[in-house]
Amino acid sequence: MVGQPRVFDSEAATISLFDDVVGSGWALLGVGVTVVELDSAAEGAARLAPTVAQIAVDNRLPPERRRTLVDVDGRLDAEFAGYRGCLVLIRPDRFVAASWPPGRARSVRGPAPADPGAHAGLTAWVRRIYSKGIANQA
Which of 13, 18, 28, 81 sits 20 to 30 Å CA-CA off 87? Predict the structure, then answer.
């Protein structure tokens, strides 16, 4: 379960708790990935309407302009250290639903089943979750 690190939100230009930034629904986070990679994954998860953001690594803002969360108290870095270079889908209850390297949805780690297509597996998994009503649970 993801805790409550304090983060700087580049979009709002404020320091807040993680939940206050990502809201009460799904979240798709890119940990040290490019905007193109994050946007591509966001297309596959669009039915979940996730909050989408990058997590800055090594205390550096990514070169691309995109909503970025920056660690303020050391806890964000600790929470996502194992996901560096990956995309992370966070459920509304703040547990990690899945993580995978960009462009490799078939390598999804977590409860999402693997599928042969790069984003086909994630898209199919998201559709199954959404159709079962799990995506509507908070």
Answer: 13
Closest CA to 30 of 70, 84, 93: 84
Give yes or no for a contact between 31 and 41, defined as CB atoms under 8 angstroms apart: no
Structural domain of 41: 6-136
Residue 122 lies in a domain: yes
Task: Write down the residue that tokens 């983060």 correspond to.
Answer: 7
The CATH number of the domain holding residue 55 is: 3.40.30
3-class SS shares of the chain: helix, strand, coil, % to 5: 35, 25, 40
Whether the predicted model's global pTM rises above the 0.85 cut: no
- Flag whether 14 is in a domain: yes
